[in-house]
């Protein structure tokens, strides 16, 4: 397959305009670290943002950073860290799950709305994304948003592009609001809770006024190895106070361990990247969002139907589930669970033949799909950008 690497936005516009005129189907990518996600699509060429790299604006005092879409996430993180700042939504790194190499790009973070455990406090990537530049399927260069947070009237293209998976346009630059890095991070660790008790404790913590920035539960077959995690960040004295108050608030957490330093960082990184389930590369991985209190019921529903392992993030609102790749890789059981308990599921990892046969993303109701088709036709009338990546025929 031909790989096209535009040097700038004008070059990208020319490539896409020519592809639209010829009906050339394009696969959009950064460095290809997440190429195995989504539905496998049949395209004629690939357009990569790898050559569009570099931070274009950084104003630490204004808490804003802009970078070309092909800029490695690690470069953005390093640039921010030098000024004691960070991306607030803690973007996940999919490489452990997918077994891919290379450097994830900041454009992919925006295009796929990639977030991590801190989403429960800071929101998703799309909530920090305040500006984009992209080329649509007509070859037109579009700028939306800016370098400050403000209310807008009309179509919010920034939010629309985030989570569109490259089906509406080829991102060339993104702008994010950032936050200062916390002075201290501490984690309360409780062992031995079953799923329901753990989620109840996490719900109490999240409902408290103590600004929880991470809430996860890692079950264990014998329950004795189960770990329930509550993370607090901020100024040292504030963290001390909140730790003590949470211990008084939560039954059983009076004797909870306190984790800090590299061990705690590594543990939250494993939660962020779903490394808890990444060990067996032969199994499929699902990402299921639901109401936090419904998480244990949803997981139990799936486990009664198929062989499954799982853990919880976002206080139970995000359930990562590992299933066998046999048959439909658990699609029927998981879709049944989201129908019964609410939520939506995305197939993150599975062989290409399975991703071609089952719905990778939660199926949309007919009226919503009609709206989706209309938006796609408006941005990409020739249907050349990542065709079929999210939904068949779209």
TrEMBL record:
Molecular function terms from GO: catalytic activity; FAD binding
Domain of life of the organism encoding this protein: Bacteria
Protein name: Glycolate oxidase FAD binding subunit
Keyword set includes Nucleotide-binding: no
PROSITE patterns given in the database record: FAD_PCMH (PS51387)
PANTHER family according to UniProt: D-LACTATE DEHYDROGENASE, GLYCOLATE OXIDASE SUBUNIT GLCE
Domain FAD-binding PCMH-type, first and last residues per copy: 1-181
Keywords: FAD, Flavoprotein
InterPro entries assigned: FAD-bd_PCMH (IPR016166), FAD-bd_PCMH-like_sf (IPR036318), FAD-bd_PCMH_sub2 (IPR016169), FAD-linked_Oxase-like_C (IPR016164), Oxid_FAD_bind_N (IPR006094), Vanillyl_alc_oxidase_C-sub2 (IPR016171)
